[in-house]
Every structure is written in structure tokens, then in C-alpha cells.
Amino acid sequence: MGRKYTAAVSESRPDPRYIAVYPGSFDPITLGHLEIVERAASLFDEVVVAVGHHPTKPGFFSFGERVEMIEHSAKHVANVRAAHYSGLMIDFCREIGARVIVRGLRAAGDFEPEFQMALANRELEPSVETVFLIPEPSKQFISSSLIREIASHGGPFQKFVPRPVSVAMMARYPDHYGDVALA
């Protein structure tokens, strides 16, 4: 037999609002990420961009720096906030009352691991749904690692990231970009 779903939201959760979590490393946030944030914000009452702690990845930017860059990059979207979490993302969803997980899919290769994670999350917490959003084609190739690679060689990465990220990246590579980050 299949899973039974409750029709009335009030029976399963007292808050009828739809809080969505968009989890990731966001190291740094890109314009592709920001597009997903903006689109999710138009679908849900609140979107929490959640910077996850990965025990084996130290990160280029600290968790605090990433949260701050996300907050500055998404300040034009009223129902978006940034947060940091550690542990299971599904536990974070429970903690804040999120009913939706938002994930971005850039290419076919993204689907299989995202599908597996969505199934695992459904097993761990059946009341939380996963929604996949696809960025516009001009942003599908952008990744945080690509941005870091371009910037590390002094390349023109700025058109792929929000302004707060551009400033922070240039500050990390003063030999390539000088003190323009302070301007």
C-alpha cells in the first residue's frame, strides 16, 4: 500500500505557512543560486538559505562570511533569510518548521544524487517535500568551484556572482585584483 497523506495542514502542523529551506555550501553564492532563491521566494512564504557544515570540506569562506554574503546578496527579497546549520539538513527543517526543501538542478548529472537525497529525506521526514528548480540556461554552468577557479587565476568572474561576493573574492586575491575590493 502507498503512503497516506493528510489533506488538512492544520492536523499535521499548526503553522499553515510554507517555509522552504534551500540548503547548500554556497561557497560562494552565485547568480545561479540567487536565481533559485528569488524563484523560490515567489513560491513560498519564507525561504531560508541554509549554509550546511560539511565535516570534510573546510570551505573557502567561513560559515559566517557565507551567511553574510547571502544576506547582502538577497536583501532585495523580503521573505528570504540566511542561516547556518550542522548535522542533518532534515533535522534543521524540523527545527524551523520547514515543509519544503528547494534544490537546484543544473544538468542531468545533478539529478541522480539529488533524487537519492530526496528519497532519503522523505524516509526520514515524510511531511517535508523536495522541490527541484532549474536555473535559466545562461546560468546552468555556473558553480561555486568554477568561480573560485576563475578568481584564483585573476580571471573575470564578476559577471557570475552578486556584487557582495565579487568584492569578497577580489579581497581574497589582491595580487590579481589590487585594492578594488575596498572601493
Give the helix/strand layout.
Layout: H1 9-12, E1 19-24, H2 31-43, E2 46-52, H3 63-73, E3 80-85, H4 89-96, E4 100-104, H5 108-124, E5 129-133, H6 144-152, H7 163-172, H8 174-177
Parallel strand pairs: 1-2, 1-4, 2-3, 4-5
Task: Summarize the structure in short.
The protein is α/β, with parallel strands linked by helices and 183 residues long. The chain has helices at 9-12, 31-43, 63-73, 89-96, 108-124, 144-152, 163-172, 174-177, and strands at 19-24, 46-52, 80-85, 100-104, 129-133. The protein has a domain at 16-137: HUPs (Rossmann fold).
- β-strand number: 5
Between the first and last Cα atoms, what is the distance in angstroms? 63 Å
What's the CATH first level of the domain at 16-137?
Answer: Alpha Beta
As for the CATH topology of the domain at 16-137, it is Rossmann fold
Outline the biggest β-sheet.
5 strands, parallel
Q: Percent helix among the residues? A: 40-55%
CATH level 4 superfamily of the domain at 16-137? HUPs
Report mean pLDDT, rounded to a whole number.
Answer: 89
Low-confidence regions: 1-11
Approximately what portion of the residues adopt beta-strand conformation?
Answer: 15-25%
Q: How are strands sequenced across the largest beta sheet?
A: 3-2-1-4-5
| SS summary, helix count | 8
Q: What features would you highlight for this structure?
A:
183 residues, alpha/beta, Rossmann fold, 5-stranded parallel β-sheet, 8 helices, 5 strands, 42% helix, 16% strand
